[in-house]
Each structure stands twice: as structure tokens, then as C-alpha cells.
Amino acid sequence: MHEHMRGQVALAVCVTILCIGGLTLVGLYAAPTQSGEIAPLFSDGSSTALEAQIIRVIVTATPAEDNPLALATPTPLPPCAVLRTPTRNPVRTPTPISVIVGSQIREFVFYQGAATYVRKDAFAPLLLSKLPRPANDNGRGLHWFPTTFQNRAVVDRFVPELVAMHIRWVVVLQGMNDWDLVANDYLIEQLQAVGIMPIVRIVRQVGEMDYRRLGWIVARYRERGVRYFQVFNEPNFDEEWGTEAAHTPEQFATYWAKAAEVVAANGGLPGFAPMAPRLDDSDVVFFTSALQELQRAGRYDLLNLMWIGVHNYGGMTANGFWRYRRYEAAVKQILGASLPIIATEGGLETASATADSIKSMYGFVEREREPYLLAFAPWLIGNGVGGGHDPIWESAAWFVGTLDRVQPRQVVEQVK
Asked: Is the pTM for the entire model greater than 0.70?
């Protein structure tokens, strides 16, 4: 009898140990919400991340509506941009992040902060006066390095340079590969510590993407104070596409809207990709058609939250620095009111050429810019000195040399 009882006790102990082990393994990957949903613990372990609100993004298997192409694919025109922009990357499929997905419907679950609620039935954009801005905002911006990672020594060396140049906005490249996911943590921390507003540019060619991964990136940096996220880059430039689908404004608007939904759902303000400037104005035509497609589809939920990215390369001329006014005019014609604009690249072809105009450019944005122009961030703080490997960008770099012997170009002195 005693031996039988001892056997039962031993069996119970073994079952208990196995249950505890199983629960521990589940706990490593997911935690149930109050509603019984399972949410991935993709966080830094802080109480803020664990206590964050859960949001569910429904992703349908088919488009909301069929839309025949409104415009025929135009005959390719010779490139007229003053300067090409980065991220000519081969198409890569990101390694999926493990996430618990509902069995009844296709759903993605992300951590996020408080949601921003806007009208979905009419154009009622956020007030320009209510948009997030840095303290002591002067409109001065600058594009960070053309790579998705810099080590701490680079960040510690160049963030003080930003402060010395009175820069208040900085465009940062954010990759979507495994090694990129948390690469900007330290940089974002340091920028926020000195009162600089980060603009995170998602490095991805136009096309479908891993939306779960995008949501995780936005949620992570939204929790760290980032509000502005640029989705895609220069869609009127064929090399920026990662799909064989027709490179039309309508197709771009479709891809952008799917990604922008995820950005908005996770608390970010989605940026409409800047066009590559063209002397024949085909960039403005492409932009206008894409914006009209969003309006035609009734995507006021996105139109009310979005901002417009612009590349205004060139000197102080209507087709150079002031090119952003062409885009604002198109927005007003289509929607009847302004949307916020951020010039995420600009300047002239080289840092030396930019030096001749930079004082006038920054002087204008400090004292005379229109309310809808939030910032002007010319290209480029540095390249090789911060780990950049493509020599094509070296002539535009404001700082050159090596990390232990940094050499500022004349443009830096002009800015200071």
C-alpha cells in the first residue's frame, strides 16, 4: 500500500515538473492578454514595453477593391535628378520573426502606445500646430550616414557635431534584416537625449514586405519616442522597385497604403515616399497620380496622418531648394488643404557646392519657411568616416577622414 502511494506521489511530481517546464517555455515566447489573445514578447523587457497596449491589425487576403491602371506606363525618361539616393539593394526576403497567429482569422499582434484616432470618412488632417516637433525647433535637419548601422564610437563622435551645428532633425536609415532590428537603439537614445527629432526611413524597395516585422520595428521605436517613419524611397525611379509589377503611381500607392496602415496602427506617422527630382517634372506628375489614387480609394485614414517626403536637390531656385512648393501645390489642388512636408534629402551635388548655399538654405527654414514645411535635411553628414562602404557618396559627405582624424569640410564651418 505504501509503495503504491509512493508511486502515485512520484508520478504526480513528474507531471508537475513537466507542466512547469512547458509553461516556462510558453512564457519565453508569449503572454496572454486580458482578452485571451497571445502576444509576442518582442520587447527590451522593460515594464513599459510589457504594459503597453495590444492592438490587432487585420490583413485580408485580397485587395479592398480591383483597380485597373488609370495611366499607361510612361516611356522611360533619362534621369535628371541632381544626385542619386542610396539603397540600391538587391531584393532580399527577410527572415520571418516567430509570432503567434490566430487560427480563425489572419491577424498580427503588436505592442504599441496610445493610438491616434482620425476621421476615416473625410479629409481632416492633423493640425500643423499639433504635430510633434523638437524643442527649440529651427527647421534645421541633416541626413545621417548612408548605412543602417554605426558603432557607438561613431554615434558618440558625431552626435555632438549635430549639436554644434544646431541640427534639430535627423533622418536615420532603418533596415529590416535580422541584424538591423535593434541596430539604431543607441543612436535614437543619444539623439533624443540632446533634443533632436529622429525621422526613421525604412530601407525597403517598393513592393510587398514582412508587415509583422515592420510593425515590430515601428512599435519598438515608437516606444522610444520616434513619430515620423518614411516608407519607401523615390518610387518614380525603377531601381527602387523590388517587384516586376508595373512601376506605376497607382501600384505604388497600393503598396504604400498597406505598409502605412501598419505604421499608423503602431502609433507612427507614415511618410509618403519622396520622389527623385526630374527636370521634366515627371516626378510631380507621378506624385500627383499616386496621391489621387489614395483619394480615389477613400484612404482618408492615411491621408489624415501622413506627411510628404521631398528631395529638393539644387540651389536656391524654384526647381531646386523651393521644389517642395510644387508638391504642396499638388496637395492643395487635390485635397484642398496642406499636408506637412519634410525635405529628407537636398543640397547640391557635392559638399563643396552645398557650402556656397547652405547658409541661405538654413537661414530660410529658420526664419521664413511656410508652416507646412517642418524641416530641411540635406544629404549627407558622412560616409566612409562612419563606416559607409560606397564611394559614390563620399563627395557629398560633410565629414571625411577616419574616426580618429575626422576632417570637416567647409560646409560644416558655414553651418556653424
From this structure: yes
CA atoms within 13 A on the CB side of 74: 15
H/E stretch holding 355 reads helix 351-355
Cα–Cα distance measured from residue 163 to residue 416, given in angstroms and rounded to the nearest whole number: 10
Secondary-structure breakdown of the chain: helix, strand, coil percentages, each rounded to the nearest 5: 40, 15, 45
Taking a C-beta distance cutoff of 8 angstroms, is the pair 173, 153 a contact? no
pLDDT in tens, 266-322: 889 999 999 999 999 999 999 999 999 999 999 999 999 999 999 999 999 999 999
Phi, psi of 5 (to 5 degrees): -65, -40
Distance CA 161, CA 41 (A): 36
Spatial distance between the Cα atoms of 327 and 341, rounded to a whole number of angstroms: 9
CA dihedral 312, 317, 322, 323 (to 10 degrees): -60
DSSP letter at 89 equals P
Spell out the residues 6+ positions from residue 324 whose beta carbon is closer than 8 angstroms to its own.
310, 312, 341, 343, 373
> Does residue 264 contact residue 116 with C-beta atoms inside 8 Å?
yes
Cα 197 to Cα 224: distance, rounded to the nearest angstrom: 11
In the block, residue with C-alpha cell 541626413: 143
- The total of other beta-carbon atoms located within 10 Å of residue 302's CB is 20
Q: Which domains does the chain have, with CATH numbers?
A: 107-415 (3.20.20.80)
Is residue 197 within 8 A of residue 133, CB to CB? The reply is yes
Residue 297, pLDDT score: 97
- For 90, the grid coordinates are 538587391
Average pLDDT, the chain: 80
Answer yes or no: is pLDDT of 3 > 70. no
